[in-house]
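Following up on my earlier message about iron/sulfur cluster. Here are the inputs again, as you asked, copied directly from the submission form:
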Amino acid sequence: MTSVNSTIQQLSLTPVGDGADSGVCATDLVKSPWDLDTGLRSYGPGSSMDDVAPADTPQQGVIPEKYRNADDAELDARIRAAKETLGERLVVLGHFYQRDEVVQYADFIGDSFQLANQALNRERAEYIVFCGVHFMAETADILSQDHQQVILPNLAAGCSMADMADESSVEECWEQLEDLYGTEPDAAGRVPVIPVTYMNSSAALKSFVGRNGGIVCTSSNATSVLEWAFERGQRVLFFPDQHLGRNTAKAMGIPLEQMPLWSPAKPLGGNTAEELAEAKVLLWHGFCSVHRRFNTGQIDKARAEYPGVNVIVHPECPMEVVDAADSAGSTDFIQKAIAAATEPTTFAIGTEINMVNRLADQYPQHRIFCLDPVICPCSTMYRIHPGYLAWVLEELVAGRVVNQISVPETVASNARVALERMLAARP
Ligand code: SF4
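Thanks, got it. Here's what our run produced:
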C-alpha cells in the first residue's frame, strides 16, 4: 500500500473540485512542508485547519536549503548515515499517527506513553528524537534522565487538542470551582474536586494537576484513573478532551446530566451554580480535530456495505460514534483487537489514517479500512517531514543540539508527581 503522503500527492495530480471531492480533507496538504512553515500561527492544513493556534505556539524556523532541495533518496541516505554514526547515542521514536516516510526510521513505534517509556529504557541514548508532537516530547523529557536530551524535528508540530486547555484558563476555572465548592473535604475525606488531565496536554497542565492533588490519564487507563479520583474526590474536572471524559464516565454509569461542559470563555463555564452542584465530571470544552470527523453515518454505511463488519473506534470520537461502534479503545487496544482475530475479518476503524493503513499492511488476512473515506492525517504530526529529521540528526553528528524540548524542573517535578500517580493507579 502506498503511504498517506504519496496518496495525497497522487490525488493532487487529478483534483476534482474542492478538497473533499478529491478525497483529501484539505487541498493545502499537497503543499511542500516548507510552505507550511511560513511563520503563520496555524496548525497547518488538514483536520485542524479551523482551530486557532495560541499566540505562544512554537514556530519552526527555516532550515538550510540543502534539506529543502534534497530529493527522497538523498534524505534517506543522509538520515541513515547520521543514524549509523550516532549509533546507541541516539534513539528515534515514531508515533502510531506519524507518516510512513518518517516512521521508517523509528527505532520504536507506539503511543505517546509507550514511547516515553521506551526513552526511559534506553539509558545509553543521549538523544531522543521524538517524531510525534510537542506534548509527547515534553512528557519524554519529564520522564527521561538528566543526561538525555529530547528533540522534536519540527517545533511547529503541536497538538490542537492540547492547546485547547491553556494553564491560565484552567487556573481561572479552578478559582471559580473553589469559590463554588469550597476547599474542605467531606465527611468521607473526599476533596470537592480532583483535576484529571489527559496525557494530551502541556507539561504546565500536568504540573497543575500534580500540585492540586490530581492525576494524568491515557486513553488506555482512563477508567482506573477516574476510579482513583472518585476515591479521593467528590467530582472530577477533566481536560482537555471532553469526548474521552464523557465516554469513560458514561461507561462507568455516570448520567450525562451530571457531566456539564465547561466552556472556558464563559462565567462558570456556561453553567448555572445549580447545575454545577449536581456535577460529577466537569468536561473541558476540548476535542481532537481528527477524531471529531467520525460520525454514525460512516458506521451505518460500513455496516450496510460489509455485513458482519467489526467497528472499532478511539474514545476521542464523539459519544454517538462510540455508542454505535462494536468497541472503543486506545491505539493499543485497536492494535491488539486486530492481532487477536483468528479468522479473516472486516474491520472498520475510527482513528488516524496513517495508523489504519499501517494495520491494513500488517494484517493482509483481514480487510481493514478507515471509517472516514476522506484522507485526513493528524495535520500537526504531518509537519514532520524527512527533511527536518535529516537536519536535526546531522546537527547532532556535528555536535549541535537543535529543537530541544526542555521542561523546566519547577514544572517537571509536579508533572512527574501526576504521572507517577497514574502509574500507581494502573490496574
Ligand atoms: S491526533 Fe488529535 S489529539 Fe492526537 S496529536 Fe493529532 S490533533 Fe492532537
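One observation from looking it over: The chain has three domains: 28-159+380-407, 163-287+411-424, 291-370. Hope that helps, and feel free to reply on this thread.
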